[in-house]
Amino acid sequence: MAIVYLVGGTGNQLFQYAASSSNDKFSNFFLKSFVRRRFGWTNHEEAISFPGAPWYIQTLGIVLLSLDLILATKFGFSLFSRLDLRRVQANAMISEINKFGYFQNDPQRRDISHLATQISPDIHEGRIAVHVRGGDLLKIEHEGRNIYGMLNSDYFSDALEEIYGEITVGQRRDIAAMIITDDPEYASSLNISPSGISNVEICQLSLRETLSVAIGADWFVASNSTLSYWIIKLRDGKRCIAPKPFQKRCDFAMPSMTNRVLVNYK
């Protein structure tokens, strides 16, 4: 058993969960508000819980993790922790007691589908949920640090028109698009206005509400965020559209019921 110290938002945490072994336990120490403030990290809302390690094991693990972070930063090796951070990577030389990092390139060993039981889907016939990410992504874009890329209005409009094109007049007339976003001002500036869909609503929801709407919708249009990636997985085969490549830096394999829209990131 190793302790996985969760870090980042829910999308990142789900990568960490999927990359873990079945007997690993989890710590939310680095998700606590005072810790995030200390490191200058974004204070994300939490909506999904993971099996926790006992507090005394977490305490011992943090001592060893602190030692390994110093060793890895200064000397390039770690004794008891596997590290996969943006600037620090190391494997445990003695025994893997801790795991700390993002692990987005690791094989996905653990099925996450059962985690969907923690979310009550908001079922609404004819709804298309569209996820638009602004906020911190827009901030790093303006600072010239965005390695993920920004999706423009053409992607979202093309995705919606592709969905509408699959719906014949005789099948459904009450199509509505709900744009769910952390940044309504940015979402509004995209002026997403697909032909054939007149009912387009922009909503800023809590994380739990976002997951509920996105999982329960008939169709889902993903952004290029890790949260969108895992929403596709949690939808368990329901129709989705995602950008290709998923991010400017890399692509992710998608379930078979996911259509891809080609994106030229700038």
What does this molecule look like?
By secondary structure, the protein is of the alpha/beta class. It folds into 2 domains: 3-110, no CATH class; 117-262, Rossmann fold (3-Layer(aba) Sandwich), CATH 3.40.50. Helix content is 32%, strand content 19%. It is built from 8 helices and 11 strands. The strands form 2 sheets. A 6-stranded parallel β-sheet has the order 8-7-6-9-10-11, with helices on both faces. Strand 3 and strand 4 form a beta hairpin. Helix 1 crosses helix 8. The termini are far apart. 35% of the residues are buried. The model has no long low-confidence stretch (mean pLDDT 92).
Helical stretch count? Answer: 8
Rg, alpha carbons: 20 Å
CATH architecture of the largest domain: 3-Layer(aba) Sandwich
Strand percentage lies at 15-25%
Main sheet: strand order: 8-7-6-9-10-11
Give a nutshell description of this structure.
With 266 residues, this protein is of the alpha/beta class.
